[in-house]
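Fold it.
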Amino acid sequence: MGVAEAAPTPSLAARTRGLRKLYRTTVAVDHVDLDVPEGAVLGMLGPNGSGKTTTIRMLLGLTTPTAGEIELFGAPMPDAAASVLPQVGALVEGPGFHPFLSGRENLLRCAAAEPLLRSAEIPTAVDQALERVGLAAAANRRYRGYSLGMKQRMGLAAALLVPRRFVVLDEPTNGLDPAGTREVRSVIADLHAAGTTVLVSSHLLSEVEATCTHVAVLHQGSVVAQGELTDLLESGNAGLLVSTPSVESAVNALRDNKIPARATPDGLLVDLTSTTAPEVVATLVRADVPVYEVHRQRTGLEDLFAQLTEAS
């Protein structure tokens, strides 16, 4: 019998090891080991002051780390910044543009500095970016007259002037109304469908749960959890939900085998602390209890986030 092959390790768009940043005696980031798989939408969560923005700035070469290693697409940063960063679009700590120029004029200047854009392509790229973020109608208005939400859209447009392999968005829905938030969610979904890796820093847990495939939770400058969102949500609660028409018989059968269980409005909830899902099903089948459906109980991202930050 042959030896089973190990699952291939996913390639990473970004990787940090032992990342640390000190501001005099203040520790902003403390030994962060972060993996951002290629093609993922990773939500970076954490309370204010947890080190999210500092970590992002170090990833992009905007801040020099005190210690640690950073790689983008396998290349060391900041040494490879000139070759790697043109493949990265970023909106960090709010956009900054010339207040007396229009939105289109500002983006034309941004596009002129894009090494991946030929001069003939610039007007079309600017128009497409403005349309993509919903600013086409306001393109000729001065930037100083834009609302906070429109300024956020401008920053997003600048990040998306050319196709990117990696897009980093620091609080992209800041100042947006519900319609604008839905548009940003749609842009992230389009990027993901195109195979682009997206890193989103956000305090809106509902938005992260709706748009992200992976999550990294930061607290007090350290990563306290990271991985696929579905796995983290399932690991946050050791419970199994069982759908059966014979709830009372199921509870009795499990309790006879010293497996805690109770009836809930959603079905039978079984505690998996001292057993496994297959053992629960086998116990019910031996007791002639019909089992219609079985799945792990999922905790909400808000509850998981509270558990992780309070425990740490």
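The radius of gyration is 24 Å.
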